[in-house]
Design goal:
The chain is globular, with a radius of gyration of 25 Å. Helix content is 56%, strand content 13%. By secondary structure, it is of the alpha/beta class. The strands form two sheets. It has an eight-stranded mixed sheet with strand order 5-6-4-3-7-8-10-9, sandwiched between helices. A two-stranded antiparallel sheet has the order 1-2. This is O-methyltransferase domain-containing protein.
Amino acid sequence: MDRLTELNGHSDQLAQAIRSLVDSRRGADSSDQLGPSADTDVDRDQSLFTRAKSNILASIAAIKSIVGEPADFLQDFSRQIEILACLRWLAEFQVFACIPFDESLPIKDLADLVGVPESQLVRVIRLTATCGFLREPILGFVSHSPLSAQFISNQSLVDAMVFIAELATPTALQMPQATQRFGASSSATESAYNLALNTVRPFHVAIQERSKLRRQWSAYLCHAAGLHQEEEIIEVLSRLNWSNLGNACIVEVGAKSTSMASSLSKMFPSLRLVVQIDNTQSSLLDRDYMWQNAVLASSIRDSSSSGSSPSPTNPFITVTYHAMGMPQSVTDAAVYIIHVPATSSGLTIKAELDDYLGVLRTSGGIMLILTTRLLPEPGTLPNPEIEAVARARDLSMLQLANESEMEMSELLSIIKTVGDNAGKLVVTNHLRSNNGVILALTIKYQAY
């Protein structure tokens, strides 16, 4: 396919995606007027909106890759750096909060209010306005745009931006020096972060000790790291035929809380759910892993002493403790939902899957492996920018703490090696998000 034909195809796809997005928004507006009875329509319209948005961004990325030239690449790169610097400057002088939420303000008055030179403020505003952040509706006046207004109503967006500017970027720029000095070291004290801050203190210790840094890191993971929210995972899991299982037992292995089980229980109240908490596996990618142990301590103590304990808020959910590598005590479940720790080694996962061979062979149940923290197979997503965000996150983990994420292809290869004399584990389905990312694998035992 020549480039012009390819460009025309992406143009058609973009136009179709835009029409779908407009239709979904109109449908949502109509549902809002119908009242609570239209909740199902709202969910459907939101799903269509999310899918259309993903398709629009994928088409734009493809078009840019076709028509872009080296100068465009470098100019965009330079622009993004300056925009980041401007946003950091605006945050430093608390400019966001000094602009009225729904009206304009003379730039000179704003400069006097925050104590910065008007000439600098004008230049900053006019650059950020080119990407939709702030507006100059009248020459010499500034107002919030829909984008910048969200940074007032959601402080965590500012926290994420400050983390990128103050820590992630300087750390990333030390990657060449870290490689020269430490090579392939896996030590948390021999990272680009340690060089950038000239410290021997590991990053994970710093975020435990400094509440502001911990808050910024959590915000970064929430908004900039491309991690899927639990609501998305629940939506994908809900596509399975849970209602056909009746009051079957479902075991969630390696959970950090009962949140996912509670959501499934609300949608499918006949299910009996066992949540096996694992507080021995922690990763920087767990946004709140610093205080999860404290939150769950009492329930884990109770379950450790008595074997298991019902959830105080839901009698159909039993909470117990189960560390990765321990034999599975529940051997008759219909489904085992497995959380793969973000930084697990291939050998650790292989050993865990080997332990489930006999369980799945005997029970005939299936296994759901959640894969939200795994890197997508190269080049398989419709929007390459989705993969880019995931790989940027992986590199950030390397630069900050010498941690890494597993590739999806590696996990699939490991699964193929798990078997015994009578059969093996096989992947039967890939559960994908609206942007094409595999969020879970369904696996069963298949006899030879």
